[in-house]
Amino acid sequence: MKPIPTLETARLRLRERTPDDAEALFPIFADAALMTYWSSGPHQSIEETRAKLTKSPDIQRVFRGWAITLSGDDTAIGFVTLREKRPSVSEIGYMVARQHWGSGIAREAVSAVLDQVLRVEGQRRVIADTDPENTASNGLLKALGFTLEGRLREEWETHLGVRDTFLWGLLASDWTAR
């Protein structure tokens, strides 16, 4: 597994996400509105969240997760994940607690991870997969410079039923040119 460096921004500290974050992140995973466009439904217990945060050795080889914390407070208020799809190409995911929506936290946190993987580590491409109706996430990706590369019809079977997906892509050259 690649290391998970601690990342600092003006307001945030992103550190390795661990099963110990389950209590702080459970309200996010239990929030039905927040989980609407996630691949699974809301969590029913902290134990379910802890299990989600506990990765098998096979997953750990390709998966990295950062807990988003406010500077000076180590309590997770969200997370950013990165899964290596193939060498130099990763898929990003993120979620922020409802009380921080609209504050720019997601943009700041995702930008920090994109800087890490595209500028520092030299990956060539980051992708994201979103539900077409997830206007907030789709808007964030567009604002960060991702290009909508396609729509896969009936791609996912989720707690909402069979759903289409938008595929977004960001090249390192697009990110560094910003």
TrEMBL record:
GO molecular function annotation: transferase activity
Superkingdom, natural source: Bacteria
Pfam families in alphabetical order: Acetyltransf_3 (PF13302)
Transmembrane segments annotated in the record for this chain: none
Keywords: Transferase
Listed EC numbers: 2.-.-.-
Domain N-acetyltransferase: 12-173
InterPro entries noted in UniProt: Acyl_CoA_acyltransferase, GNAT_dom, N-acetyltransferase
Name the UniProt record assigns to this protein: GNAT family protein
The species this protein was found in: Sphingomonas echinoides
